[in-house]
Amino acid sequence: MTSSEKYKPFDAADYLETLDDVAAFLEAALEDSAEDPSAVPHALGIIARSQNMSELARRVGMSRDGLYKALSADGNPTWSTILKVTNALGLRFELHPAAS
Predict the structure, then answer these.
(1) Span 57-83, mean pLDDT?
(2) Per-residue pLDDT tens over the stretch 7-49
(3) What Cα–Cα distance (Å) separates residue 79 from each residue in 1, 16, 76, 82?
(4) Cα 49 to Cα 3, 5, 96, distances in angstroms
(5) Residue 85: CB partners within 8 Å, gap ≥ 6?
């Protein structure tokens, strides 16, 4: 690497191009949430950044700044906000019996 080479920090939002990508990313966050309760809100923040944040906030019924804050690392969104965001993204949570 030469001193003139610059690397952009990795941002998962740059790779969430389709609804299937978004769903898979959120599903992985759900799996991680047993160990890290902030995994789902954090993932939704990344997903929101991959979309048009202003349009998503409008569909959720929040201000852009309010949504950004709720889904930030320091945010603490309500379950209602999480559901509104996932619905606005065209996703829904489903429960299935766990295999035993």
Answers:
(1) 92
(2) 889 989 999 999 999 999 999 999 999 899 889 999 999 999 8
(3) 46, 23, 9, 5
(4) 30, 26, 29
(5) 44, 48, 56, 60, 67, 71, 77
CA distance 65 to 46: 15
In the chain, where are the structural domains located?
13-88
Phi-psi region of 97 (alpha: psi -120 to 50; beta: other; left: phi over 0): beta
Total residue count of the chain as it appears in this document: 100
56: which 2 tokens? Answer: 């998503």
Q: What own/partner pairs with CB < 8 Å and gap ≥ 24 does 16-20 have?
A: 16/46, 16/47, 16/50, 17/50, 19/89, 19/90, 19/91
Return the minimum-mean-pLDDT range out of 3-7, 26-30, 71-75: 3-7
